[in-house]
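tokens incoming
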């Protein structure tokens, strides 16, 4: 890892937040709605790159469950997003470290593949980002509730939503509003609480 990126990585307190499944669910119909002949291509030949993810990531698990081919990479596996790029991939999906969101967007626009990134809605602001959005376009999938991330800081005080390249949402309107499923939220929260108590019991032994 270059010294520069090491510094970037150490910058933010919101960089180690892991995404729950319910926050990935709204992407399903947008991926299926891409301008692709799925019968001809086959989902298992459509490659989604998750560049901030290990095999433990819910993005990797859920996208595989939906039938796609997933390539994951993470800095801990020696694959720095700013230096590594898979040979073939069709779409980029992830929740990147928030502290380097501008640099991440910049690189994604340069790579030129469709993407959907989970970012705080405040990422709409900012002079450098404004310039990029204006030049390359941006679509938003706005989630109706705040995502309660796993590990790190358990909850947060901001709304996160999907920032997508212009060609990801295949609709006339470039802002879509999506509801998170309350049943999925509850199920995942209960499961996490259960795991939390199990971990505590282990620590106290
Ligand atoms: C916000 S977390 C999200 C993890 C996962 N995408 C998820 O949603 O559960 C971002 C992850 O990217 C990793 N990371 C930081 N800088 C990176 C880089 N330059 N290249 C690849 N991964 C990086 C962090 O260590 C962190 O685990």
């Amino acid at each position: 890892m270059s010294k520069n990126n090491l510094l970037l990585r150490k910058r933010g307190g919101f960089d180690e937040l892991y995404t729950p499944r319910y926050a990935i669910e709204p992407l399903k119909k947008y991926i299926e709605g891409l301008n692709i002949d799925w019968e001809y291509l086959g989902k298992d030949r459509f490659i989604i790159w998750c560049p901030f993810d290990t095999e433990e990531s819910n993005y990797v698990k859920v996208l595989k469950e939906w039938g796609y081919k997933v390539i994951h990479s993470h800095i801990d596996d020696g694959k720095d997003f700013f230096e590594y790029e898979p040979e073939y991939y069709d779409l980029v999906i992830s929740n990147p470290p928030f502290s380097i969101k501008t640099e991440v967007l910049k690189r994604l626009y340069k790579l030129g593949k469709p993407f959907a990134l989970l970012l705080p809605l405040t990422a709409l602001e900012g002079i450098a980002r404004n310039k990029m959005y204006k030049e390359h376009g941006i679509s938003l999938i706005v989630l109706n509730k705040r995502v309660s991330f796993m590990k790190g800081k358990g909850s947060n005080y901001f709304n996160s939503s999907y920032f997508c390249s212009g060609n990801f949402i295949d609709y006339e309107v470039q802002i879509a509003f999506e509801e998170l499923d309350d049943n999925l939220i509850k199920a995942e929260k209960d499961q996490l609480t259960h795991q939390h108590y199990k971990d505590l019991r282990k620590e106290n032994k």
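note: Strands lie at 47-50, 69-72, 91-94, 115-120, 139-143, 160-164, 175-178.
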